[in-house]
Amino acid sequence: MRKRIVIGLILSLLITILVWQRIETPTPSIQEVEPSLLTIPAYIDDANRHRWVMRGGQFDQQKVLKAREITKQKFKKQRNYKDAGITSWTNLGPGNIGGRIRAIATYRLPKVNEDVIFVGGAGGGIWKSTDSGDNWTALTDFSPSLAVTSIVIDPDDNNTIYASTGEGHAFQTIGLPGAGIFKSTNGGTTWNQLASTNNSDFLWVNKLAINPSNGDHLLAVTANVNISGGNFPFQQFSGEGKLFESLNGGTTWTEVLSNPQGILTDVEFHPFNSNVRVVSGRGNVFVYNSSNGTYESKRTLLNNYPGRMEVTLCGINANVMYALVSTEVAATDGTNLAAIYKSSNGGSTWDFRGVHPEVFRSTTLGSYANNIWVDPTDCDDIYFGGVDLWKSTDSGQNITKISDWQLYRAFINADIDEDIQLHADQHIIVPAANYSSLNRRVFIGNDGGIQKANNIRSGSTNLLSGWDNLLGSGLGITQYYGVGSSPIVNKFGGGAQDNGANLRSGSVWTQPSNGDGQDMIFHPTNQNIVYANVNNNLLKKSTDGGATFSDVASLGEANASLIAPMAMDMTDPDHVYLCGYALWRYDDGTGNTTMVKNTLPDIGNFKQEITAIDIHETTGVIWVGYNTGIVEYSINGGLTWSGDITSTPNAAQIPNNAVTDIDIYDDVFGRQAYVTIGGYRENNIWNVDVSDIGNPTAFDRSMDFEMQVNTIAHHPENENWIYVGTDVGIFASEDAGVNWSVTPLFDENSGPEFENEGPVFTEVTDLEWDFESFAGSYNLVAGTFGRGLWLSSNILTDVFVDRTFSPGAPTFGTRTKPYRPFTQAIDKAENKGSSVIFLEGGTYNNINPGQSRLFTKRTLIKSEATNSAIIE
């Protein structure tokens, strides 16, 4: 009988293949990759607006704000239970790898000899340390925006703090819009959005400055970004910068300056003379004229360069100021020239000090990472950076490199007291509050977080030693694009923005690869083999469990965006698929990389590229989705393809926008999948069925409010339990998307600012499953763009109880590790962990005879006695 069933299934599959091959458009013959494509691509900056390509459009802050309010209401409505089995979350870190920081503010606690430090993550919110960076506390997980760009402290009251949001420095690549300016009057414990900044003028506030002699006097520079030209990807971006002033602690603001050349990025008060003020941005520097109250442009004195300009003022001489200019003029080696200018008369005139192409290592980096600071005790000593940090002791004429980003990861596991190197891309330099000729301690913010130098002058002739990494104590702000989990050992990993491929083994994080990481995949049967991809789908392989990686294949910039997906065929783990404008397969057995799906035609100057892929674990069926909404699949390893299923009548309602994720849930044939579509819409989650060849169907399973959905996953033991990662956290459904609930817990007694657990109000970019063989249970791994990795509690579709299970043995509620006391099962069920409790072995006298259903606080639970269990 079993043989007849197997034969029947095989014949059915063959017939399906033959029918399908008759109706599809033939695919051109397979081509080998050109040898030049297998070279390591040069480091490039965020290009082609890849984040918007992958997401299907720009970040819509207004819809995010609305969604966060809806989410809070859902919290209150559902109270403290969660759907689909998630009862708790644990943050996995990393705490020692970091993420982009543009905001640092500090003051001194003299009695305990400690620095109080505030930092702002570009996507991780505001954090505080009261012990000089040894420990950190997140302060704003429920803030309307976690994209913090600057923090200033009232000079007369350390409890009054202001923070700006909206990363206009990077609005064309990875920057997130903000929600205005926030204020705390209790040392950062709670924050309130300034009502005067709850408008479109303050979506991108790049920096704040506070008057050193009047804490109510604030200046804010902004980027007013205009987006026009129709739907993505055919948008045009332009921007102008504005300077706003408040004389009453942010209650009201007045526009005092507009820069038609471009966005404004920097504003400075002199620390001892508030009448000396300088503003800069793209293509201009403005100096305040206190005699008439205006800001005068010095653009022509700085050679009319169009690039970003940053400024700094010398603390001991109000007449001395510097500008670091990204000229946007290429040097002979293709890098971008960095020019340094100095004024010795309060900005009236400016002297050219030198041009240094080595500071900005690409033609666009100077608009992204650009920072300069002058030692307040010596006006000739300046420190500045693009990729690395540089120093000059003669006002910028001669320079010396004092950091090397390529050495950063070599010390990633070092104790925070040991020497390390700075991470790449320098954004801010802040001296300690008690900085002096006897104490030259500074804090540096970059794409790797925050580092400290106890003596910034110790690197006057060579690379500076004595850097301390202030991340190892739990500053979890890493921005992940993709994550993975080992099915064999306790390992997690992922690809992060400018933090390469990093891996967690046990509780220790390492960063074995630099660059911009995208994803990490663990071999299903060999714990030593791990794959990771970085810039433009450069594929790396480890044969020692992730300790080291070697390059094995590359698509390169001409064939893939900076951030591009990959996937492993679990039926043949030697095959790794790389996504770009075409689909490629790397064969580890031969070392060859082969094109298995040709490129689609360009739309004007816009390239269609693969933004999502999934491969069925038992049949090898491949599904791919494009940035234009096209979805195709192959049942024969890419030899032939179905054509766009969304062009057929019963699936045509799927929007023509970027496919952000695909999750195949059909356990047998791989013909059914959940598909998510980018853009802020309600119709962005779809249940797609292609079992009927030539007549695919699609059913809308979206939530009831507009939100960007980035990723989707179904429970391995129940296809109806599905989870989505959005721009405001994770939602779950137990009925295949008919109804949805928020997954994070909260403390309803904590007041208006919820005490949260889990990735709340954070952009969740990837969801993967981790199977704990010891417990026999599944956990959900969530990667976020700004708050690191999170791991759910064990998610049970069924709960098992066994009164005869060994006393004292660990229990997880699974069949192999069941609960012993029945009350544990009820607690799990109350949190929507299961609809059935299976009772195995022993006597259960706390259930009435014959009772098969139990009512708990929030749900109806069915109990079934099995394996000779007795209910009395």
Explained architecture:
The structure is a single chain. The protein has four helices and 64 strands. The longest helix is centred in the first third of the chain and has 22 residues, at 2-23. With 872 residues, it is mainly beta. Residues 1-49, 227-237, 410-419 and 748-754 have low confidence and may be disordered. A hairpin with a 7-residue loop joins strand 19 and strand 20 (321-330). The strands form 17 sheets. The protein has a five-stranded antiparallel β-sheet, with no helix packed on it. It has a four-stranded antiparallel β-sheet with strand order 2-58-57-56, with no helix packed on it.
Described by the principal axes of the CA atoms, the overall outline is: globular
Structural class: mainly beta
Percent helix: under 10%
Terminus-to-terminus distance = 41 Å
Low-confidence stretches: 1-49, 227-237, 410-419, 748-754
Percent in strands: 35-45%
The side-by-side strand order for the widest beta sheet comes to 1-42-41-40-39
Describe the main β-sheet briefly.
5 strands, antiparallel
CA-based gyration radius: 28 Å
- Give average pLDDT, whole number: 84
Strand runs, count: 64
Q: What is the overall number of helices? A: 4
